[in-house]
Design goal:
284 residues, mainly alpha, two-stranded antiparallel ribbon, 63% helix, disordered C terminus
Amino acid sequence: MQSPGITLQSSSDSERAREGETSLEGHAEESSSALSLYDIRTRTPVSVLPALNYASNFVHIPCDTSTRLLEQFRNENLNYLPCIHIPPHVTPQELMQEKPFFWYCLTAVLTPNLIERESLFTKVHDTIYQKLVVETTPSMDLLLGLMTFMSWKVYCAKPFLNFYSHLLTGLVSELGINKAPRKDQSVLQGFNRAAGLKTEPAMKRTLEERRAVLGCFVITSSIASSLFKSDALRWTPHMEENLEILASTKECFGDELLVWLVRIQRLAISTRIGQAPDTRISEE
């Protein structure tokens, strides 16, 4: 009498076992696909990492504190590396809205509390990884934030400098601000001009982009010199043009200082390698 019951139970168990194997196989396939994007630090597949929302982390900062931090950055930090110009009329709220990651890094490097600062630095690392490695979405906001983070973070190890110097160089290359903007020379635009039709004007570099690429040159070349490496951002004729434009326009006091920093750095490089600075480098 018990044998039919035993047979039914065995059949049920075998079905559950097959379902378990199917579930495991599906999980294995899902895991193998997630291994292509894997966060080594947290041992977590990037596909399941929460989206980073760094713009909302500083809403709780009082208005007077935000103003004080911005004034400190303007009057103290930018006296050493004026890679960005923040007009006096720009408020912390406007800067937070236009350049959230830059504002995040600015606040992080100026936070006096050590524990809070290290926590913010960790979030900066995560954001850089998410935006550059996972999403691959370069932007001027990301570039300016990374420059700020590299310039005023208290370094703990030399590999940090070299690694982020490569990221900075790659970001400049992706944005293309180290080269002259592409002129509208397509065949279709040529036909439009010949037919008298309206064509879009060639894109021009902004002063913000010109300052940023020169600031990147100062940062990466300084790191390369201190680590005895040759991985600095390569000098191009377009960067020479940027230098001349900033020297002539002088929109702010920082432009003149940045021009001198670049010239001194190039002179130091030429002295180290034993030749005069060469501006005839191909932009290929």
